[in-house]
Design brief:
This protein has 148 residues and is of the alpha/beta class. The protein contains 5 helices and 5 strands; from the N terminus they run E-H-E-H-E-H-E-H-E-H. The longest helix is centred in the C-terminal third of the chain and has 17 residues. InterPro entries: CheY-like_superfamily, Sig_transdc_resp-reg_receiver, TCS_response_regulator.
Length: 148
């Protein structure tokens, strides 16, 4: 469970402005204090992490990762995350429109922590993001940002 003394930092790697906006709304209403940072593609996500690499306390507690993005997609981002000494422990939830078996197998082969197909229906999308908050930010014990 989260330390109530500090906000949970979530990095959302998503190129859809509407999905970003909906996630911001749902997390804004969360029971947990969430600081949501957004990267619009894989390159921005890696730059975000590289800029914080010397300060573990500034790293995200959780990453929500889309697969199909411009410049660098989620599969490559996930591969780089899990190969990095500091970033590999950050739980990664793949949240994408793809239901392709190859994508599902590919992200688990790259050590994703969860794979969730985004619902196209607005109320269902809101429900899924709320469930992510309920489970990953209220129930799960996340690694501390200061851990080496």
């Amino acid at each position: 469970m989260a330390d109530p003394a500090r906000p949970i930092r979530v990095l959302l790697v998503e190129d859809s402005p509407s999905d970003v906006a909906l996630t911001e709304v749902v997390f804004g209403q969360a029971k947990t204090d969430i600081q949501l940072d957004v990267a619009n593609d894989g390159i921005e996500a890696l730059e975000y992490l590289e800029a914080r690499d010397c300060d573990m306390a500034a790293m995200p507690d959780l990453i929500l990762l889309d697969l199909n993005m411009p410049r660098m997609g989620g599969h490559e981002v996930l591969e780089r995350l899990k190969a990095h000494d500091h970033w590999r422990r950050i739980p990664v939830i793949v949240l994408t429109t793809s239901k392709a078996e190859a994508d599902i197998l590919g992200v688990y082969d790259r050590h994703a922590n969860s794979y969730i197909a985004k619902p196209v229906d607005l109320p269902e999308f809101i429900d899924v993001v709320s469930r992510i908050e309920d489970y990953w930010l209220s129930v799960v014990q996340l690694p501390t940002r200061t851990g080496s």
